[in-house]
Design a protein that fits this description.
The chain is an alpha/beta fold. Helix content is about 40%, strand content about 15%. β1 and β2 form a beta hairpin. The longest helix has 21 residues. The two termini are about 45 Å apart.
Amino acid sequence: AQVLRCMLRGMTPRTEFQLRPCGTAATIIAERPYVHSPSGEPTIACDERPPAAKPGKLDEVRDLFRSRLEGDAAFRDFNKDHEIDMPTFQRLIKIMVPSMGQQETKALFMSMDTSNDDVIQAVEIFSDQTMAILSNRMMADVDHPLEGSYHCLPRPPFRDDPRQMEAIRVLKTVFDEVIEAHRKPPPSVVSPAKPAETADWKGLIGSLFGGVRRTWPQKAVTPAPPAEVAIPVPTGPKGAYLYGGCGAGKTVLLDLFFRSLPEGFTARRLHWHEFIRDAFRSMQGQPAGQNIFEAMADGLSKQFRVLLLDELLITHISEAILVKNLFRHMWARGMTIITTSNYLPEELYAKGFNRDQFEDFIPELASQCPVIDMSSDKDYRKIDVSPSSNFFCDSISPETSKRMDDMFEQIVGKDVTRNVELPIPSEGRSIVVPTSGVDARSARVARFAFDELCGRSLGRADYSVLAEKYHTIFLDGVPKFRPDLGAEFRRFVSLTDIIYGKKVALYLQSEVPVEQLFADGLQHAEFDLDELWAFRRCSSMLTEMQNPKYHHMVWLMRNHMLQDSALHL
């Protein structure tokens, strides 16, 4: 196997060897010492780090797998049906790539099963995407599931990054600690002498949905003297706080952590929008007279032990109080939180209304979720970007409208459905999908005009349902945003956040190229920090979404993001 790795890399081992019989096995006799892998196992040293898999190399790997499947009697069902189920795929990988663990193999199978029929066909097995992943894994010596998942990213388009590798090193410890804690019963809660809830909750739910906070100073309100607070004692493993700018790889690492967890491990992987949506719904359902956050944490701790939270972004005092008190009670019940953010803990809710109610929590957050600094001057979403896109049209004209029509028809054919009502759970209402169909794999495809999604009073709940139900969304007529940005901008950012998080394939027609959509807004005198990050984040995501690189992630992660543990708190 080690010799094969060197051959696939197109290199010569730094050792002379010969094979000789030894019972039924063969022994490699090295005239120079082996080097050792991180697991301590001997491995033949090659002259340099392996390059990314090239097309010719993929053909070699494809031939190896095809020969095994077609020539091994253990896989005779493949020759009859040209498809295999998960147990058969796991047996195949155990033979061909023995360093891949069972969960890593299962995760890859889930990505490959694009038709969601619990079998993978020959076209899925021998695709370039699958072969690139398996080629990388055959060349990589890893001894940890998280490292294995990182090496499952196809290269290209992904690249090794030293900050990401350092983050993986730290996250491996977190991973091991939460796995060990999960094997034990949940720890007992050390109750504080006084309740940690200090805020007046009257009108708080209404204030969340009644407007959007801007972070410049607001009319001063004299708060009541702070009450003495007894803080619950954390009892579980510490998590992590992945900090960095757009395109640093934070979300990818969070997704890989989620993808690497063993079967039966209880976790939730949510975007901030989904977390806030469900947390406030849960608050409304709590019995009167109880400590709301204590009751919520009790319920959550019975369902899962780890929360993977993407894009921590506090924009309202109600969100600040929720995070402060709910996180405290979750930690007191042995739960672990791993989050990503564009903000350092001390930057969260900067200049926010009544921020003093949140400031005492910041050291606790930094302690329970130690910062992993992934800040970089590289935005990987914008690297290796093709100058032309097969997915986005950067003008609004009869020609680009026809191109959008042609792409939609190419995917769904002529069999389309008009004005489907899609219920919004727990909201007692529906959203109308003007045009929809299904693609060749029976995945749903929807088409909207910009005004239908962002010109109306829609929000997180609506966009989340669309992202869950539709694999592909066409969006026509996105304008260049006005200098004052406004509600349409915020809805568009929320929509982009959510469909990117759920790995929805996006086809978009816009008035100008996506990097120019917010140019006028940047000149606005009252442009604030949250809107600046929203612009950067949205622009970065859209740049990636118009390129094949993003569609690799759609293929790799979409099915994982539709598991129950990635849909609801």
